[in-house]
Amino acid sequence: MIDDVALLEAWRDSLALSALKAGEQVVILNGWDRPARYKAVATLAARQLGAVVSYVELADPDHLPASVLPLLRAADLVIDLVFVHDPQLHAVRAADGTRVLLVLEPPEILLRLRPSEADKRRARDAEARLRRARIVRVSSAAGTDFSFAIGDYPVSSQYGYADEPGHWDQWPGTFVYTFANDDAGDGRVVIDRGDILFPFNQYAAEPITLEIANGWINSIAGGFHADMMRSHMASYGSRDVYALSHLGWGLSPNARWDVLGQYPSGALEGQDGRAFAGNFLFSTGPNDIGGGTRTTPCHIDAPMRACTVELDGTPVVELGTLVAGPALAAE
Ligand SMILES: [Fe+2]
């Protein structure tokens, strides 16, 4: 049972961290065919902060109608409850400075992972480390030994709130990532038993071994989940599905690796899995959100436990534990 007052407080704190101020315009986006789970609480929280709230039900979150765009341009903060994938939203952010906060996860996860300024400090610190690096090496006792060159694509992070003009973020979740340079990435990635496979929303039942050369996955070997991954990727009929997507590590101290098994498939968006502190988040497919040319919709996120991540030889994660940046214990 979720305490409605606690949820309202959490929303108000989250919107305050998103720099929402009296008189600002908020637009809440939801799908017409889904329950408006957070419409009321988001509206109350925004109004408590003195903001002016409008609400739009979208027929198709992948295609924003032209009639909605002026509303988004006029907004200071968009609260996205449906996950809009239309690039026009990002064009509005860039041109007009509209901030966007995506919120999808169940209320108890929002409460457990209330964002904080410490999350942003940790994210910014990790960004700076990653921006200075040129070679990332990932290794594990399970057999991962994988290196990739970086520097040609931007470094980004999420920290759970949208406080700066044009910033997009998601509550909850703190992690950092970039993209391998074109044709970079060599070695072996072993997604171990218990690592997570999105969008399947499953834990790998057996190790999956990926052989990677020049930034391309050449083979996928293992048991049932390797078969599923191969079959799923082949169904898109595109070479780009075998490329690398965002690569980085998780920074959320309260995110939990183990929650996936407690929910029916589809009930979670998966931010716990992507953000739990010290995971190496491997992913496949598109790199267009980093400015690259690959746009394939086939995208697998695989948060991996017990990896060591080194930046130019200096570890930031050792055996799945953060070893660089602001100490988690200090919070
Ligand atoms: Fe992803």
Question: What report would you give on this structure?
Answer:
The protein is α+β, with helices and mostly antiparallel strands and 331 residues long. It contains eight helices and 20 strands. The protein has helices spanning 4-17, 39-48, 69-74, 87-96, 107-112, 117-132, 224-234, 271-275; strands at 25-31, 52-58, 77-80, 99-103, 135-140, 145-149, 156-158, 168-171, 175-178, 186-191, 196-197, 202-203, 208-213, 216-222, 247-250, 280-284, 300-304, 307-311, 314-318, 321-322. The strands form four sheets. The protein has an eight-stranded antiparallel β-sheet with strand order 14-13-10-6-5-18-19-20. A five-stranded parallel β-sheet has the order 2-1-3-4-8. Strands 7-9-15-16-17 form a five-stranded antiparallel β-sheet. A hairpin with a 2-residue loop joins strand 19 (314-318) and strand 20 (321-322). The longest helix is centred in the middle third of the chain and has 16 residues, at 117-132. It is globular, with a radius of gyration of 20 Å. The mean pLDDT is 95. The site of fe (ii) ion has 4 residues, from loops.
